[in-house]
Structure formats: structure tokens, C-alpha cells
Specification:
By secondary structure, the protein is an alpha+beta fold. Helices cover 17% and strands 22% of the residues.
Length: 110
């Protein structure tokens, strides 16, 4: 299980990990508030204002092309889990575990 206070490491695209610093821009690959990677082109982030979770999708494959686009904005854990289930990226049990430790509402306690 990931530590909620530590930013997760994005999946390696070419087998290497980046040593770059984290960004404050939601559109960046190295955005500092990625909650979980659902799949190589899907992720959940905490918005820069800490007001909502955003499910983002990368517009192109391979990952070094395209941009991150918001697909869903939610403020409750139940809504986030339902949105992820509709997109079918919850097949990885570790994703379910990470989502389960989120607070019930954005800004609330788990």
C-alpha cells in the first residue's frame, strides 16, 4: 500500500525512472499530487486547490506524446470508485486498496 503522504512514482515508460522534480501543474507528467496510476494512460490526481479528485486520461500513446485531459471531477470517495469502475481500471487490487484509504469526502478524514 502506498503512503498517502508520499507522491507515487509514475510507471516506467522505458524501464527507467525519472529523477526530475515534481510539478505543480496538473497537466504535467510529473504532477506532484498524483494519487494513483490506474493504467499507463489513466491516473487520479488531487487538484491543485485540494478541492476535488480528478480522473485524467493521456490523449496519446506513447506517453511522451499527447496531454493529460480531465475526464471526471469528484469530491467523494464513493463517486471516485464508481467513476473508476465505469472506466474499468480497477482490475488491479493495489488500486482498490489505495482508493479505500482515501477520506470519504475531499478534505475529510479517512
Amino acid at each position: 500500500m502506498a503512503n498517502a503522504s508520499t507522491p507515487p512514482v509514475p510507471p516506467a515508460i522505458d524501464g527507467c525512472r525519472s529523477t526530475q522534480t515534481y510539478s505543480h501543474r496538473e497537466r504535467d507528467d510529473n504532477y506532484r499530487s498524483v494519487i494513483v496510476w490506474l493504467a499507463p494512460r489513466w491516473r487520479v490526481i488531487l487538484c491543485k486547490d485540494r478541492a476535488q479528485w480528478i480522473i485524467q486520461h493521456r490523449t496519446a500513446d506513447p506517453l511522451h506524446r499527447g496531454v493529460w485531459r480531465a475526464r471526471t471531477y469528484v469530491t467523494t470517495k464513493d463517486s471516485l470508485v464508481r467513476a473508476c469502475a465505469r472506466l474499468e481500471p480497477l482490475s488491479d487490487p493495489s488500486v482498490t486498496v489505495i482508493l479505500s484509504v482515501l477520506p470519504d469526502r475531499i478534505g475529510g478524514e479517512a
